[in-house]
Amino acid sequence: MTVEPRNLAFIGLGVMGYPMAGHLAAAGHRVTVYNRSADKAARWVAQHGGRQDGNRAAPTPAAAAAAAEFVMTCVGNDDDVRAVVLGADGALGSMRAGTILVDHTTASAQLARELHAIAAAKGIAFIDAPVSGGQAGAENGKLTIMCGGDARAYAQVEPALARYARAVTLLGGPGSGQLTKMVNQICIAGMAQALAEGIRFAEKAGLDVPAVLDVIGKGAAQSWQMDNRGKTMHADQFDFGFAVDWMRKDLAICLAESRANGAALPVTALVDQFYGRLQARGDGRRDHSSLIRLLRDTR
User: Fold this and answer.
1) Which residues of the chain register pLDDT less than 70?
2) From CA 236, how far away is CA 114, in angstroms rounded?
3) By the 8 A CB rule, do 81 and 129 touch?
């Protein structure tokens, strides 16, 4: 598919942002990147053609955003977003009226609404666009992107986002993308715990666990978690994927929002405590599916 080359900026080259920015470059866009660790930005530029293809690294978020039509951010949390967008060298300080800021960070809906208002005062559109699909989804260009913001700005930026997504959807006004991502994480937490309990039950019952997962995966119990994490949970393999620390961060956002809107999240609150126990054991960097470790011993 042909694409109109645009000047883009991508801020944050972590395990998600690095391949996401790469898909934009591969599509023919001219991408300026910024990363807190400059060596990673330099490595990205070397991998994606360098200046001859219009791709380069910038020393600050502001410098990366200065000539960009769309600016994408993908960092760690609310504070990180504020730093790269609103800080002394933040992207918003150099963005021009008529450009669009897209935040892929999983952050609070309150921050999304705040950035929308600040950007609008400068004539800049803002789209909150958290993603789901993990590192593999980013690398394969198969993320699910949940968006909130103005429909006209979304229509302009959607073709670029589609370069690293299998689904991009506008869910409503500012903050709607973040709220939808909260629903996603609430569901994942409950499914991961249920899967851990089911697998541990099968182990204790002396069943052939891979065979059990194969057969129930063809029925009503099937889920992404079962397909992608069931057998690795049984094998006690967790040195990959979406870390406990990041899931705990996300669930804190969900629980704070539930206190504000009155939604009851009893299972989510309980699973959040289990993740806290994993962190206390030193398992914070292991995949979120490591919940089963708590069922295998009582440390």
Assistant:
1) 1-3, 50-52, 298-299
2) 42
3) no
Q: Which residue type sits at 73?
A: T
What is d(CA 63, CA 80) in angstroms, rounded to the nearest whole number? 17
CATH T-level topology, domain 7-173: Rossmann fold (3.40.50)
For the segment 231-290, what is each residue's pLDDT rounded down to a tens digit?
A: 999 999 999 989 999 999 999 999 999 999 999 999 999 999 999 999 999 999 999 999
Q: Which of 122, 142, 181, 231 is catalytic?
A: 181
The CATH number given to 180-296 is 1.10.1040.10
Parse the chain into domains and list their residue ranges. 7-173, 180-296
The answer to whether residue 40 is catalytic is no
**Residues whose CB is less than 8 angstroms from the CB of residue 238 and which lie 6 or more positions away in sequence, other chains included:** 232, 283, 286, 287, 289, 290, 293
Burial (CB count within 10 angstroms: exposed 0-12, middle 13-18, buried 19+), residue 235: exposed
b/e burial code for range 205-225 (CB count within 10 A of at least 16 → b): eeeebeebbeeeeeeeeebeb
Which pLDDT value is given to residue 155?
A: 98
Cβ neighbours for 222, distance < 8 A, ≥ 6 positions apart: 216
Six token digits for residue 72 = 């994408």
